[in-house]
Write a structure and sequence with these properties.
- The protein is α/β, with parallel strands linked by helices.
- The protein has one domain: 3-Layer(aba) Sandwich (Rossmann fold), CATH 3.40.50.200.
- It has nine helices and 18 strands.
- The strands form six sheets. Strands 7-9-6-10-11 form a five-stranded parallel β-sheet, with helices on both faces. A four-stranded antiparallel β-sheet has the order 4-16-15-8. A three-stranded mixed β-sheet has the order 13-12-14, covered by helices on one side.
- Strand 17 and strand 18 form a beta hairpin.
- It is globular and about 60 Å long.
- The N and C termini lie far apart (65 Å).
């Protein structure tokens, strides 16, 4: 198969399975760079920085094995690849990069060691269809509802396991002991009705829960309030208002400053715990745009996420460049950690603390600081 044809197939497949949002346009885009003539290996030169080289076995012509002369080992941390990708001669380095990418960074694992893991906190996710038994989050889905994905039961998606693992994954997640109410919605239909239905389902689930076990936040790595959604946007807006009345916080990729203040950032992969070394945006294009105020930058690149396209075949993928989709569940996870420490915090109080405790990145950007955030809450409850 010719490279151009393969590129089209990969783009179609990834659009179908992603439904992610990328800051900048704050719209629903792929969360990692799609294969393209610019990022795809051409056969007569080395892979370029930030190339997407995931091996997708069901795509005719998808390349799996890269010989040692087809890439530079020092560039591996910038690539997007999965466990099916073979980088000859650098298999160990690729595995180390994959493992390092599981670390949420910014002191999150130190909080876990202290028992701050989101235990006892219920959260919700609206994303594409999810296979429930990936080892990262098996047993953590409190309830699952499909609003109309119309996918075979043994089919997964790229996007859903990724965001779920970032929020509650055993080795990847920010809040690994939180429980998730998951609503699957078909982003590819570009119809906000499905997302509105998901919010109403979450509201109904919440009404059944006793005090002290309510759903605290909904993570939506999409922007149902606008482009590229084309239908029933007002239905989403009405449902979002109902969610707010229910007392549940919403984080999404839209344009409302109450719900859409999370923006992508990236840490220094050699110093992932250091907030002061973080920068805003994407490492592939660090000066492409600036966020609107107020905003909080959250790490989205150099991350490993869960992957499962077919039931019974759980895997992982490493994303050298991740989009805003990865930031929304990360921020929701940090909030879950905060609510574990002080369940009495209102939505307004916890968001204000999140802003008040942000650090300053290497480029002057405002960056989430989980350790300072938790320290501030602990000081309040003493």
């Amino acid at each position: 198969m010719k490279k151009a044809a393969l590129c089209v197939l990969i783009s179609m497949a990834l659009i179908m399975s992603f439904g992610a949002c990328q800051a900048g346009s704050v719209s629903e885009q792929t969360s990692v760079q799609q294969a393209s003539p610019e990022t795809e290996w051409k056969g007569d030169e080395k892979l370029k920085l930030f190339s997407d080289i995931r091996y997708l076995h069901w795509l005719d012509g998808s390349k799996q094995v890269y010989e040692a002369d087809e890439f530079s080992p020092e560039d591996i941390s910038t690539f997007t690849f999965n466990e099916g990708t073979v980088l000859k001669g650098s298999e160990e380095l690729a595995a180390q990069t994959m493992e390092a990418g599981k670390n949420p960074g910014l002191g999150i694992r130190s909080l876990h060691q202290r028992g701050i893991t989101g235990k006892g906190v219920n959260v919700a996710i609206i994303d594409q269809n999810l296979l429930l038994h990936h080892p990262e989050f098996d047993g953590k889905i409190a309830a699952y509802y499909d609003t109309g994905c119309e996918r075979p039961e043994d089919d997964g998606s790229m996007h859903a396991p990724a965001v779920t693992s970032i929020l509650v994954g055993d080795s990847i997640g920010v809040a690994p002991d939180a429980k998730v109410y998951f609503a699957a919605s078909p982003s590819w239909k570009k119809d906000s009705k499905y997302y509105a239905d998901a919010l109403y389902w979450i509201i109904e689930q919440n009404k059944k829960l006793p005090e002290g076990e309510k759903i605290r936040v909904v993570s939506v790595s999409a922007a149902p309030s606008g482009s590229p959604f084309e239908k029933n946007i007002k239905m989403w807006d009405k449902a979002a208002s109902a969610l707010k009345e229910e007392g549940i916080l919403l984080l999404d990729c839209g344009s409302d400053p109450e719900t859409s203040f999370i923006y992508p950032a990236y840490y220094d992969p050699q110093n992932p715990e250091d907030v002061s070394k973080c920068k805003y945006g994407f490492p592939s294009s660090p000066t492409s745009y600036r966020p609107r105020e107020p905003y909080i930058g959250v790490p989205t690149s150099y991350r490993t996420v869960a992957e499962e396209y077919k039931a019974g075949s759980p895997s992982y993928q490493y994303t050298g460049v991740g989009g805003l989709s990865w930031g929304i569940p990360y921020a929701a996870g940090v909030l879950a950690l905060g609510w574990q420490v002080d369940p009495t915090l209102s939505n307004e109080e916890i968001i204000q603390l999140l802003f008040d405790t942000c650090g300053t990145g290497a480029d002057g950007s405002t960056v989430i600081n989980p350790a300072a955030f938790i320290a501030s809450i602990e000081k309040r409850v003493k």
